[in-house]
Amino acid sequence: MSELFRIQLKVRDYECDLQGLVNNAVYQNYLEHARHEFLLSRGVDFAAMAQRGEFPVVVRAELDYRKPLRPGDGFFVTVRCSMEGKIRMVFQQEIVRDDGVAMLQARFVTTVLDARGRPRIPEGLVQRLAD
Amino acid sequence: MSELFRIQLKVRDYECDLQGLVNNAVYQNYLEHARHEFLLSRGVDFAAMAQRGEFPVVVRAELDYRKPLRPGDGFFVTVRCSMEGKIRMVFQQEIVRDDGVAMLQARFVTTVLDARGRPRIPEGLVQRLAD
Amino acid sequence: MSELFRIQLKVRDYECDLQGLVNNAVYQNYLEHARHEFLLSRGVDFAAMAQRGEFPVVVRAELDYRKPLRPGDGFFVTVRCSMEGKIRMVFQQEIVRDDGVAMLQARFVTTVLDARGRPRIPEGLVQRLAD
Amino acid sequence: MSELFRIQLKVRDYECDLQGLVNNAVYQNYLEHARHEFLLSRGVDFAAMAQRGEFPVVVRAELDYRKPLRPGDGFFVTVRCSMEGKIRMVFQQEIVRDDGVAMLQARFVTTVLDARGRPRIPEGLVQRLAD
């Protein structure tokens, strides 16, 4: 399992919906952005993968919403990555408000599809991500 | 458990990301919109609830991504609602492309918070939704 | 100038922000979607253009916000297209609530870039769009 | 006219569309976020205004798209505010990539509506913003 990676973010007003809280779908944006920044920190560029015909995809997402983020809240998003078998990468993630309160826990099961749509983890990717 | 409810939608180009596919977070938008239309069809107005100090919230979301929607795809989103105990409503949902292929299955565990943030399903809501 | 094209839409709750109104940026989504549907109605597929290395781009956008759309509002979006010189297509657009009230007027100046980033309207496009 | 205010941001992959570029509507998100951060820096909280029944609204937006932002680009957004007559605040904004290239210029004409929907700039707001 990888070391804990984290990025620091702040709620933007347009991310809040008519309840005055961050909309449920927006957390997926935060979590995806954190995963892609984690990949970049390991030398893996998501946008470049797509151009090469390697398509990282989410197979399953589980999100446990604990407390809602509000306008102006500062928070960080964590990422931990591990392999599950030979073709699945699992990301454990958490969103924590700056005062230390856990807002959300999530688990993403992902794989990489080749140009024909078959699951195939590109060579070297596991070494880059898993340590 | 409620009868099957469904709405018809079409992918909009701005909902697709640099992979040329509908972004993972956008499916949550589709699913939320279908749930709110389901509520409306039962005489329950989400926006009006928020103004009354009743806050429907998602506690847990599970999404199984089967196949990706692409630009121009037509599809429908289904909703089925049931109670789980006294304070939890569970929504089973599916996204199906117009040619009948299942793209995504999802399950949302929700509750309603009162103005003090305590779970409390408003009187009459269960009768409206569950049949 | 082209004949008037229009699409019918409905506000989705997630498109509203903490003011309880459709967020300003979302109108650009509606307008873009209407333009792309207009293109499709003329046999021009935006997503396919991008894959061929033809990139329609907005050069300038002007939006006059008259009244805000609210949760549940039904509305339609109109499109009218005309050429301005040889490399610019101009879209006049309007958003009108179902009761006939004009909510927004907009004007988009656009062009098409080739793979090297130079403005070049593909052959035949003008004929397809302008009549 | 106010001193130049600026915030630093970075493109997130989900903000890019099927052209592989930041979607046109997303720039409005960036620009709104920068305006709200500018307001905050002057002690004016947009979310709190909405709760008090003061609704800042955009009346007109003009955006000149110069060059597109791409995945991973770092950039900053500037804000300059001035009064135009007694009920209109004008924001001049620019988006500049980290290497100094100007990507977009924009101008937003705004006002504040009271609970009855009439334009009325709250007392003291002009002094806070204009210097």
List the helices and strands and how they pair.
The structure is a homotetramer of 131-residue chains.
Chain A: E1 5-10, H1 24-41, H2 46-52, E2 55-65, E3 74-84, E4 88-97, E5 102-113, H3 125-130
Antiparallel strand pairs in A: 1-3, 2-5, 3-4, 4-5
Q: Would you mind describing this structure in some detail?
A:
Four copies of one chain form a homotetramer. The first copy, chain A, has three helices and five strands. The first copy, chain A, has a five-stranded antiparallel β-sheet. β2 of chain C pairs antiparallel with β2 of chain D, so a sheet runs across the interface.
User: Separation of termini of chain A?
Assistant: 6 Å
Helix content of chain A: 10-25%
What oligomerization state is this entry in?
homotetramer
Strand order of the largest sheet of chain A: 1-3-4-5-2
Largest β sheet strand count, sense and barrel closure of chain A: 5 strands, antiparallel
Low-confidence spans of chain A: none
**Structural class, judged by helices and strands of chain A?**
alpha+beta
The gross shape of chain A turns out to be elongated
Number of domains of chain A: 1
Largest interface: A-B, 22 and 22 residues
Arithmetic mean of pLDDT of chain A: 94
CATH superfamily of chain A: Hotdog Thioesterase
What's the short story on this structure?
The structure is a homotetramer. With about 130 residues, chain A is α+β, with helices and mostly antiparallel strands.
